[in-house]
């Protein structure tokens, strides 16, 4: 269910989209009827892109987009410069205007309590929430929010980064409440915007949530927060496109704007200090590496619950199919990449701990390059760092779980081979953290490259802690 300034009864058809096969049985035979669909809802699409009212819905089939791209290829080079099938009009006559958070506020409803079959698509094998599915909905909703903020202009809008996804509390029961995903733009630059989204539980039936307001969402019901950065490009020139300005109206909106502005500056500073290619190991980190080498070099066997980093590595290779394309048709939807990297990271953490780990957070992630439809995507997941969580640790992880255990950090590297040009591109790095109760696990790097991954993972953990401290200190002044 999607809020988009249109009649509610259209959005109410969303739950029906989740079931596309209807069976009727008799004593003689059983018939399966495929419902007719005109908006491609029988294919993969996240909730925010399904309703006919959604600005991110698909308006053309892949075959239409494919044929248009092939027809546009240069006969000499064989290349096509077509970046978007739907967004290809000049936006030079559009004026920059002022916007408020109300202009971009949007929400979707996941009727987990009302519709067991809808929920069935969001459950993992352990009966818990399948967060990979949620990631797709978060990214799609962020796209809707970005589109609403930029209206009436229609630039190319793409996900630049996922700044952070954090679980605030455990969900042990997933079918007793419905879920709302809601958010709005919190900060704007010239051509970029930061979007905040939160997920909350509600006992209200989905049919009664026809005009949800942000003020109706209680803090105690929120179990997940997410931050996205989107950028706008001119469809014809591919240059940055000036978007509407966000104008805070009250103290809370000003505080949110200031917090987002400081976090944006923090990200730029972090880029200078986090990357080991730019900032080599500090004296403390160099000593840590040396101590680990001394400790493990003469050990005949590793201690219990300890693995070599090389033994944690798992891989995935897949062709990027058009059913997972974004609204520009020729590139893969960012939410799908989040889902695939998350689920590989989950498998890596599960194999490492021989358990069912709980998702804690996705740390700052940048989409370094788009992933073309038809390319081959190579993913590599590695356990790069572990942290023992005890009652003495003053961390968000222990507060949210209230049990000792291990925080397992998994890094997923993504590279893509473009079959048209035979080039390989680094498209992104994703760092996920999972929590495993009771047992303490450890990972041991051996090569210099593994040591650098370990140090970078450690820096990520420290940055996550600093982020939570920054957010708490800023909220104290609201």
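-> sequence recovered:
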């Amino acid at each position: 269910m999607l809020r988009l300034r249109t009649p509610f009864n259209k959005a109410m058809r969303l739950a029906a989209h989740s079931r596309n096969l209807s069976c009727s049985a008799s004593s003689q035979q059983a018939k399966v009827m495929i419902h007719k669909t005109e908006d491609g809802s029988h294919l993969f699409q996240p909730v925010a892109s399904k309703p006919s009212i959604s600005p991110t819905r698909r308006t053309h089939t892949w075959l239409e987009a494919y044929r248009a791209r092939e027809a546009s290829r240069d006969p000499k080079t064989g290349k096509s410069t077509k970046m978007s099938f739907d967004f290809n009009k000049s936006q030079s006559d559009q004026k920059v205007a002022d916007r408020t958070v109300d202009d971009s506020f949007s929400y979707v409803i996941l009727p987990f309590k009302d519709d067991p079959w809808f929920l069935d698509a969001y459950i993992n094998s352990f009966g818990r929430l399948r967060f990979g599915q949620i990631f797709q909905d978060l990214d799609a909703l962020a796209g809707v929010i970005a589109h609403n903020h930029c209206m009436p202009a229609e630039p190319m809008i793409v996900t630049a980064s996922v700044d952070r996804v954090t679980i605030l509390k455990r969900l042990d029961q997933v079918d007793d409440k419905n879920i709302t995903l809601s958010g709005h733009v919190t900060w704007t630059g010239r051509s970029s915007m930061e979007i905040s989204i939160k997920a909350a539980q509600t006992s209200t039936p989905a049919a009664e949530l026809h005009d949800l307001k942000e003020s109706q969402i209680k803090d105690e019901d929120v179990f997940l927060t997410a931050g996205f950065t989107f950028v706008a490009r001119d469809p014809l020139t591919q240059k940055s496109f000036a978007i509407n300005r966000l104008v805070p109206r009250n103290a809370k909106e000003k505080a949110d704007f200031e917090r987002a502005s400081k976090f944006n500056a923090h990200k730029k500073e972090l880029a200078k200090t986090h990357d080991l290619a730019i900032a080599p190991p500090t004296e403390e980190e160099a000593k840590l590496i040396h101590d680990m080498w001394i400790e493990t070099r003469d050990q005949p066997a590793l201690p219990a619950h300890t693995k070599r980093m090389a033994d944690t590595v798992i891989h995935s290779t897949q062709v990027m199919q058009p059913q997972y394309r974004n609204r520009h048709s020729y590139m893969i939807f960012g939410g799908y990449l989040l889902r695939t990297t998350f689920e590989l990271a989950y498998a890596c953490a599960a194999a490492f701990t021989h358990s069912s780990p709980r998702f804690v957070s996705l740390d700052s992630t940048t989409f370094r390059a788009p992933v073309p439809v038809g390319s081959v995507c190579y993913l590599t997941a590695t356990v790069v760092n572990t942290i023992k969580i005890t009652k003495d640790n003053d961390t968000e992880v222990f507060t949210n779980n209230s049990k000792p255990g291990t925080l397992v950090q998994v890094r997923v590297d993504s590279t893509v081979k473009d079959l048209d040009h035979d080039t390989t591109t680094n498209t992104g790095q994703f760092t996920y953290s999972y929590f495993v109760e009771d047992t303490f696990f450890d990972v041991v790097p051996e090569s210099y490259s593994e040591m650098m991954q370990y140090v970078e993972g450690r820096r990520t953990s420290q940055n996550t802690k600093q982020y939570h401290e920054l957010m708490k200190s800023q909220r104290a002044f609201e």
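The chain is about 30% helix and 25% strand.
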